[in-house]
Amino acid sequence: MSTIGTFTIRPLDPEKDAELLHRWVTHPKAAFWMMQDARLEDVEREYMRIAAHEHHHAYLGLHDGEPAFLMEKYDPRHVELVELYEPEPGDVGMHFLVAPTDRPVHGFTRAVITAVMEELFADPATRRVVVEPDVGNKAVHALNEAVGFEPEREIDKPEKRALLSFCTREQFEAARGASA
């Protein structure tokens, strides 16, 4: 993905990054984040809560040094999926959001999800990435499939009907090799 540029990921600073995040999560393209009506204080409070949580972490993704995406990593045994599936050792939950732009770059979102997956699998303890996007989010289902996710089943979360999907390290490597 060298034609796209360089991606780096840093811990999110809820106070410093709240204004930027607020613009992203309230944008119409971020409807599946369910924060359309959030005020700046709501966004800051939510990411302060995540920053203080032992099993949930938020990161800011940079593209060539500029903020370009949000990544959340969580332990599904304690956050998001408690009692909704049987977690396995090495399971890591993930959310990501690409910043809205007026100048989309072909392949950019796929490059972002690939960078996110590389970051998650850089930890040798990560055996499988778990996602639970809204069943109606067809665009993210296609992206997930492109990097190796396989849907398991639909589940009911308090806030949505979700498609529970998994991607092992081997599935990710195979998908990455197939697209090279």
Q: Secondary-structure map with pairings?
A:
Elements: E1 7-11, H1 14-25, H2 40-52, E2 56-63, E3 66-74, E4 91-98, H3 108-121, E5 128-131, H4 138-146, E6 150-156, E7 161-168, H5 169-179
Parallel strand pairs: 4-5
Antiparallel strand pairs: 1-2, 2-3, 3-4, 5-7, 6-7
Helix pairs in contact: 1-2
Summarize the structure.
This protein has 180 residues and is α+β, with helices and mostly antiparallel strands. It contains 5 helices and 7 strands, in the order βααβββαβαββα. Strands 1-2-3-4-5-7-6 form a 7-stranded mixed beta sheet, with helices on both faces.
Structural class comes to alpha+beta
Instruction: Give the spatial strand order of the biggest sheet.
Output: 1-2-3-4-5-7-6
Task: Let me know the average pLDDT.
Answer: 91
Shape verdict: globular
Overall radius of gyration: 16 Å
Q: How many β-strand stretches?
A: 7
Give the number of helices. 5
Order of helices and strands: EHHEEEHEHEEH
Q: How many strands, what sense, and barrel or not for the largest sheet?
A: 7 strands, mixed
Helix amount, in percent?
Answer: 25-40%
Function: Acyltransferase required for the direct transfer of medium- to long-chain fatty acyl moieties from a carrier protein (MbtL) on to the epsilon-amino group of lysine residue in the mycobactin core.
Protein name: Lysine N-acyltransferase MbtK
Keywords: Antibiotic resistance
Pathway: Siderophore biosynthesis; mycobactin biosynthesis
